[in-house]
Amino acid sequence: MTRARDAQAAAEAGADYLGFIFYPKSPRGIRQERFRDIAPRLPDLPKVAVTVAPDLYTLAQLEGLGFDYFQLHFPVGLSEEVASWSKLVGKERLWIAPKLPPGVNFDPALLDLAGGVLWDGFKKDADAYGGTGSLSDWESFRKLREEYSATKWILAGGLSPENAVEALEQTGAECLDFNSALEIEPGVKDLERISQVRVSISEATGLSS
Ligand SMILES: O=C(O)c1ccccc1NCC(=O)[C@H](O)[C@H](O)COP(=O)(O)O
């Protein structure tokens, strides 16, 4: 989210969380000053600060903005950093999003440090950590979610109104993350596409939200 009106549309479509990306290399990033500016106009939903391998100073700054959760993307091999993020924000508020190249397994030891895992698509480019539109490995997500059921598992990566129902059916996910497939351009949501998510899911499940 970069605009209050998009956040409002997401709330009306039944979103449970709102995400704000503070990674400077993201085309949909928001600066801390801008977030402070729109914060009073945002719906009353839990808010998630998203960034890539932050230093502790930056993470403390984001915490100071009043976020409920911290979704931190990182390359493999940063377990010490994950431990320090967990210590700073607390395990339950930390959602980890490891960038796992194909064939590299998720390290379950990380679950001692984080309350949630965002399971994202992979793209090789060094700076690509999210918002790439690449599907994630749904089968691995399903297995991990079943095996480690105490953790909050969030399915991400290329989700759209067109594939959301299939994603729910194939993975049993309770939480889906939508991003680039709902945009007119990076950082600007398509309000019609946002409401289509609600329509597709409610048509398929018979639920109204
Ligand atoms: O979206 C970004 O630009 C981004 C950049 C760096 C780190 C994370 C980022 N997004 C995080 C998300 O939670 C996205 O929603 C997730 O990657 C899925 O995006 P998409 O494949 O576009 O649906």
UniProtKB/TrEMBL annotation:
The keyword Translocase does not apply. It catalyses: N-(5-phospho-beta-D-ribosyl)anthranilate = 1-(2-carboxyphenylamino)-1-deoxy-D-ribulose 5-phosphate. Its EC number is 5.3.1.24. One of its GO terms (molecular function) is phosphoribosylanthranilate isomerase activity. Keywords: Amino-acid biosynthesis, Aromatic amino acid biosynthesis, Isomerase, Tryptophan biosynthesis. Signal peptide: none annotated. InterPro entries: Aldolase_TIM, PRAI_dom, RibuloseP-bd_barrel, TrpF_fam. Residues 2-197 form the N-(5'phosphoribosyl) anthranilate isomerase (PRAI) domain. GO terms for biological process: L-tryptophan biosynthetic process. Pathway: Amino-acid biosynthesis; L-tryptophan biosynthesis; L-tryptophan from chorismate: step 3/5. It comes from the Bacteria. It is an enzyme of class 5 (isomerase). HAMAP family: PRAI (MF_00135). Belongs to the TrpF family. This is N-(5'-phosphoribosyl)anthranilate isomerase.
